[in-house]
Amino acid sequence: MIQRGALTGFLSGSIMGLAMKFLEAISSKKVYVLLLNVDFIPYIDSRDLPELAEFSLHVLMAILIGIIFAWLMERNADSKNSPYFWSFLLTLPTVFLYFPLTILATKDTPAVNDPISFSLWTVGHILFAILLPIFYSPRQK
Could you list the residue ranges that cross the membrane (predicted)? Predict the structure, then answer.
């Protein structure tokens, strides 16, 4: 379960991260910068971290969410709820992280009240929620 969840999170988080980079490139809204931003974490100076290290921290969080998703899928295998129900339920709180992350950021990130940036952030996280069930491979019986 852990390996399947980790792979699911890795693939979903990596694609989401690349999609957020693309959305930032075409819109000039710093949603990718916000996604990778860790400057609010004590003892981490993100000014000194290369992009790959920040991206790896994002992917690590996605892996943890993927493992939780796999656990939910196996625990609720007989449930009538679809994998997308669990995926969206698990991902929904991450959409609203936009607000505290923009407030806590010291880097140049989108404004907390920027509706376009929030929409792009939401689209990226919806993509993640869609990808989790696509990449999840249930245990063979």
Answer: 55-72, 84-106, 118-136
